[in-house]
Amino acid sequence: PVRSVLPADILARKGGTPIVCLTAYTTPVARIVDAHCDIALVGDSVGMVLHGMPSTLGVTMEMMILHGRAVVRGCQKSMPVIDMPFGSYEEGPAQAYRNAARLMAESGAPAVKLEGGAHMAETIAFLTKRGVPVMAHIGLTPQSVNTLGGYKVVGRDGEADSVMADAEAVQAAGAFSVVLEKVPEGLASRITQRLSIPTIGIGAGLRCDGQILVVDDMLGLFTEFRPKFVKRYGELGRAADEAIAAYAAEVRSRAFPAPEHAFADVLPTKGPKS
Ligand code: KIV
Ligand code: NA
């Protein structure tokens, strides 16, 4: 299908109205995201948010394809982007190409995202030269939690130069945009000014070319932890808790189902006006 937003359109949004992005993992949520956002990211955060995994490291290609298909079905005007899961691209360009092509072909998403800066530049160039639009992801890269030693801010003090070098490397390799995760706001602002591709911030301050959040975080549905950069725009977790508590109480007290939720044994005789 011809979409109204494609990677080239995102690239053209550099420096303009902020690019609005959220994650989505299911068709119904993708439909709501699609109505309001430019990009619906099928993030590998799906492992933690929907499947209760302790990190994103256990997320598989099959999970990404299944959720990717669901999101693609819900997107009419926005652009779905699908995360490459841990272990599916780090070995080298050929492995990355094989799995990126499979993700795109089997989910229908027109672009992929992968984590890593300068060390992934060769892979990003290999993909982009062969028809795979790549969104890069630098700063805090959660798939590297075990080597980074936690989910800390990346790019303070002596680290700033290497994050800037990562940004320049992924741009030179052909990425159409780059996610900056948990990067100090001054550095994110300098990267945004320096690059000609859009920066999409998460915990990276106001100066990025766009913003992204995990949709379940901003809806108040995923409450396991609450990073400083998440603003809660809803309390859907609380609303669901109240609704389920009310249902449980009504089942126990036999208040539910009421007569209107049940079926009579005999159909009422059809009168002139039944
Ligand atoms: O997996 C994810 O949700 C992400 C975004 C938060 C950038 O990578
Ligand atoms: Na991700």
From TrEMBL:
Keyword terms: Cytoplasm, Magnesium, Metal-binding, Pantothenate biosynthesis, Transferase
Cofactor note: Binds 1 Mg(2+) ion per subunit.
Catalytic reaction annotation: (6R)-5,10-methylene-5,6,7,8-tetrahydrofolate + 3-methyl-2-oxobutanoate + H2O = 2-dehydropantoate + (6S)-5,6,7,8-tetrahydrofolate
Signal peptide (from-to): none
Gene3D superfamilies membership: Phosphoenolpyruvate-binding domains
Pathway(s) it belongs to: Cofactor biosynthesis; (R)-pantothenate biosynthesis; (R)-pantoate from 3-methyl-2-oxobutanoate: step 1/2
Record carries keyword Transferase: yes
Residue positions of the active site: E181
Residues binding Mg(2+): D44, D83, E115
Annotated transmembrane regions: none
Chain sites annotated for binding 3-methyl-2-oxobutanoate: D44, S45, D83, K113
EC numbers for this chain: 2.1.2.11
InterPro entries listed in its UniProt record: Pantoate_hydroxy_MeTrfase (IPR003700), Pyrv/PenolPyrv_kinase-like_dom (IPR015813), Pyrv_kinase-like_dom_sf (IPR040442)
Top-level lineage group: Bacteria
Cofactor: Mg(2+)
The family this protein is said to belong to: Belongs to the PanB family.
HAMAP family linked to this entry: PanB
Function text: Catalyzes the reversible reaction in which hydroxymethyl group from 5,10-methylenetetrahydrofolate is transferred onto alpha-ketoisovalerate to form ketopantoate.
Assembly information from the UniProt record: Homodecamer; pentamer of dimers.
UniProt protein name: 3-methyl-2-oxobutanoate hydroxymethyltransferase
Organism: Gemmobacter fulvus
